[in-house]
Design brief:
The chain has 238 residues and is an alpha/beta fold. The protein folds into 2 domains: 5-167, Rossmann fold, CATH 3.40.50; 188-237. Helices cover 45% and strands 18% of the residues. The chain is built from 10 helices and 7 strands. The chain has a 7-stranded mixed beta sheet, sandwiched between helices. Strand 6 (138-145) and strand 7 form a beta hairpin. Helix 1 (5-12) packs across helix 2 (29-36), helix 5 (98-106) packs parallel to helix 7 (126-134) and helix 9 packs antiparallel against helix 10. The model has no long low-confidence stretch (mean pLDDT 96). It binds S-adenosylmethionine. The site of S-adenosylmethionine (SAM) has 16 residues, from strand 2, strand 4 and helix 5.
Length: 238
Amino acid sequence: MKLSDRLNIIYNAIREGETVADIGTDHGFIPIKLIETGKSPYVVLVDISCDSLEKGRNNVQSIVNEEQKSIIDFRLGDGLKALDFAEVDDIIIAGMGGRLIRDIMSYDIEKTRSFQKFILQPRNHSGELRYWLLNNGFNIVSDILVRENKYIPEILIVESGMPLFDISELNEESIELSVPVTLADNDKQLVIELLERNINNSKKVLDNLLLSSDNKTEMVKEYEYKLEYLTEFMKKVK
Ligand SMILES: C[S@@+](CC[C@H](N)C(=O)[O-])C[C@H]1O[C@@H](n2cnc3c(N)ncnc32)[C@H](O)[C@@H]1O
């Protein structure tokens, strides 16, 4: 199974011998690769949609052999509700909105804490997700960028632990969380592109705010601060 760059980064975050559940699996490509290569001794495919789970099941049927099929399980269900307490080591939740990922993780926090590692790939609202993680005893050990067509998805590797920096002054809208400085460890070109997109968006919002007649002083200050942060970040990267 040849994986896209995005899925391959997620696959690489799993260590040899770790058991895995792929929540919102759809095509099931990562579980298939984990089984094909023998990296995982047990993999659970979870999806809330019957059609999506069927897609994953059909792909598994056509690719993996009879012996490998015995270490794969399929569950129709909502997020981590489909799993038992500590049933697997690692949880993958990829290709969903950041708020949905947060809701899945916060539904039963004790169960969520029973898993060792999370590989999360929010399609949006990554700052809100980071805020929730850092305020709920999870640490982001790696923040990875990858190119996927016109998108630059972010992949967060998350484990239990205390945040490595002070978050007491931040909120879920903070630019420090939606574009954290830890992203600087990625490919320079990708970081520059991501920063350019954010700078352009912030400039557009700020221009519109300045044109509007309503009193939006607080929002203007907020976007001026975001622009300053992003511009400083860009200087450091270049
Ligand atoms: C865009 S696909 C992502 C597929 C794959 N994970 C990837 O990253 O390429 C999102 C999948 O998540 C499933 N999904 C959405 N909400 C879910 C939930 N609460 N629990 C389980 N699966 C969910 C959808 O049915 C869909 O199959």
